[in-house]
Design goal:
Distance between the termini: 33 Å
Radius of gyration: 21 Å
CATH superfamily of the largest domain: Type I PLP-dependent aspartate aminotransferase-like (Major domain)
Strand content: 15-25%
CATH topology of the largest domain: Aspartate Aminotransferase, domain 2
CATH class of the largest domain: Alpha Beta
Largest sheet: 8 strands, mixed
Structural class: alpha/beta
Strand order of the largest sheet: 1-9-8-5-4-2-3-15
Oligomer: single chain
Order of helices and strands: HHEHEHEHEHEEEEEHEEHEEEHEHEH
Shape: globular
Length: 365
């Protein structure tokens, strides 16, 4: 699916930090935060943290979510989304998805109760949720923007669509710091609470204001991130070009349902994810493409509430219908979509997928 893109700029940045002798919570982190706020999310504040999971954990605590509260979110996501809610002490209430793989506003409204503290909206695969429709329900919207770097809704960037946005800079993401994350927000008081909580609860040296964690980002990671962020717009444009080529080339393959981008949204294309007709053996298609040297992957083969650690969990509510999410888990397949893909690569992917679908039950008369 394309590994991290590391070049001389990143290597020079690491060397600059090592030569400085300042490795933790220094000028690189401060500069990275300012650049993230300005160039990634378009918010007043960004708080760099140790991972995308740390961003979720700290945001929930800083927003006061805890025992007795409920959080409405999607079942079709990586489990890190749900783990953060459970660690906060709150209860997870799942709401079904729409055809775009994202939490469906009407389903979210049906899942809400008087105890709902917020809606945790996952911008899955890089497509932003309809955050405005979710916010209209009267609860704060916290964005899981781990896959949505430079995605937009109505011209506003992911990370600025709710009360806060949680980004991941893990090695597989559209930009990376190796391990790392950030919370973006327009709320100065929330940003300050986040900074205190990530730093063992300290406002200043030995001035403790809360019980916190050590979830700081290192200077080395921030320096890498600054170099990556400068290259992100070009990489995002390349991903969008690859996605356009794939959609054009796959439009006539029977049994393949292409991803769509609703009007007013810009996709970051962390994943280019198709659906296959239920009559087609999805796993056989993936295996055939793998044999052809193409990394076709399933994200994700189960919804979170059907995964072993979550079945029967006392703070997971599955009372709402989740049929569309479960259907997606049975039929989705992600194709390579990254800046290194060429037109020849697209042609080879399309030929492989066409043959695999035909042999696995598609293209039937």
């Amino acid at each position: 699916m394309g590994g991290p893109r590391i070049g001389d700029e990143e290597r020079d940045a690491v060397d600059r930090v090592l030569r400085s002798g300042r490795l933790a919570q220094g000028p690189e982190v401060e500069a990275f935060e300012a650049e993230l706020a300005r160039d990634l999310a378009g918010t007043a504040h960004a708080v760099a943290v140790a991972s995308g999971s740390a961003a979720l954990d700290l945001s929930l605590v800083a927003l006061g979510v805890g025992q007795g509260d409920e959080v409405v979110t999607t079942p079709f996501t990586f489990p890190a989304t749900v783990n953060a809610v459970l660690r906060s002490g709150a209860t997870v209430r799942f709401a079904d998805i729409g055809d775009d793989f994202l939490i469906e506003p009407a389903a979210a409204a049906a899942a809400m109760t008087d105890r709902t503290a917020l809606i945790l909206a996952v911008h899955l695969y890089g497509l932003p949720c309809d955050a405005d429709a979710l916010a209209a329900m009267g609860r704060p919207v916290l964005e899981d923007a781990a896959q949505a770097h430079l995605a937009t809704l109505g011209g506003r960037r992911a990370g600025s669509l709710g009360v806060a946005g949680c980004f991941s800079f893990y090695a597989s993401k559209n930009m990376t710091t190796g391990e790392g994350g950030a919370v973006t927000t327009g709320d100065a008081e929330l940003a300050e609470r986040l900074r205190v909580l990530r730093n063992q609860g300290m406002r200043d040296r030995y001035d403790f204001a809360a019980i916190g964690w050590n979830l700081r980002l290192t200077e080395v990671a921030a320096a890498i991130g600054r170099a990556q962020l400068r290259r992100l717009p070009a990489w995002t444009a390349a991903r969008r070009a690859v996605a356009s080529m794939l959609s054009e080339a796959l439009g006539d393959v029977e049994g393949v349902i292409l991803p769509t981008v609703p009007a007013g949204r810009d996709h970051a294309w962390h994943r280019y994810t198709i659906r296959l007709d239920p009559s087609i053996d999805r796993d056989a298609v993936a295996a055939k493409m793998e044999a052809d040297g193409i990394e076709a992957r399933v994200y994700y083969s189960q919804v979170v509430p059907d995964m072993e650690p979550y079945v029967g969990h006392p703070r997971i509510d599955v009372s709402q219908p989740l049929e569309r999410a479960r259907a997606a888990a049975r039929t989705v397949l992600s194709l390579p979509c990254h800046p290194g893909i060429t037109e020849a690569d697209v042609a080879r992917m399309v030929a492989s997928l066409r043959a695999a679908v035909s042999s696995a039950g598609g293209d039937r008369p």
